[in-house]
Amino acid sequence: MIKRFSTLYIGHIELENCGHAGTPADDRRYPNERVIEAFDTTLELAQTMDELGYEALWLAEHHFQHEGYECIPNIPLLAVHIANHTRRLKIGCGFNIIPTWHPIRLAEDYATADILTGGRLIFGVGRGYHTREVESFGNPMLDAEANRELFEEQLEIILKAFNQGSFSHQGKYYTIPPPVPYRGYQLKEITLVPRPVHLPVEIWQPIVSGSARGLEFMVRHGIKGVVSATAEQFADRWFRDYQAAARAHGRELELGEELILGFRMSIDDTQESAVRKARPYFEEHAKFMAPLGMLRYSEAHVTAVAARQAQSPTGATLENGVANRSWLCGPSRDIVAYLKALETKYPGLEHVMIAWALGTPRDLMLEQLGRFAKEVMPAFTSTAAA
Q1: What is the pTM of this model?
Q2: Mind listing the pLDDT tens digit for each residue in 297-317?
Q3: Distance from C-alpha of 95 to C-alpha of 1, rounded to nearest angstrom
């Protein structure tokens, strides 16, 4: 039964001339006083969501983007600021790019922020999809397989740090601690100080290509999944594959259990006006994401995502997105009806995430948050409360 709603904001600023005919993505360059607008937007979204009864605001970690698309480099730090200005809203790391961190430093920063937010921080992990981001941190892993190996080893270290009173690690990329003398004895184990409020830590990861290896890794480590902005045929496939992977590890889950299903959204009085409202931002999003191979609207798109191949920015339309339900565009009653159908289809699904395309203005996101909370959420939260 759907009973929790969240939002994903990946940190874009107000962009002018959006759309395919607008400013080319690589021609955008904003000064520091502009890119930091993302922090003000984050706080205003958080305070609005806190008042409207949303479960969580998910934020995305990204680096070096003078283009203004994704301008939040440190989610745990920003989460502490948000928690000081809200009452109950959770803040999701959606997602920490593990290969840009030393795993011990990320574990420390998460634990500290989790304590300072009163346990309101949600841990999320990802491998990253921007070569410029991961490798500019001095990570020499040009090969996708090596990057995957590094990510998996780093997460293993983080889990040890969270869950063990003291630990050591010897792997392909890390030896922790190194064999060094310390206060008259040989250092063999270390302890994470502090450790998070709630143990074991609930961990979420995006399901991007739905590979068998990726899903097996997730369920083996108890990691929950987020499927967002993905055509419904793939969402359905990955929901079933995740359930099957959990079953192979001896865990029986209802279909949709331990998963979040996310959509981009535009509410208006008619589908036509909702599409018209969202179109320039859909096109801006595609213009930026397609060369990175991150659109998931067709079989060709998903194949390109798995192979990390560039896609055509004009190879998808908003009409495609509406048809394949990666976008929900139209009156609130139609969105309610679709989500009610999903409750029947996925009896274990509890959590729905809404989002907007890159470039969507702050005022429009706030207006959409309000409409969704007042016109859609009561159809589910009242049932959950009963």
Answers
A1: 0.93
A2: 777 776 766 667 788 888 888
A3: 25
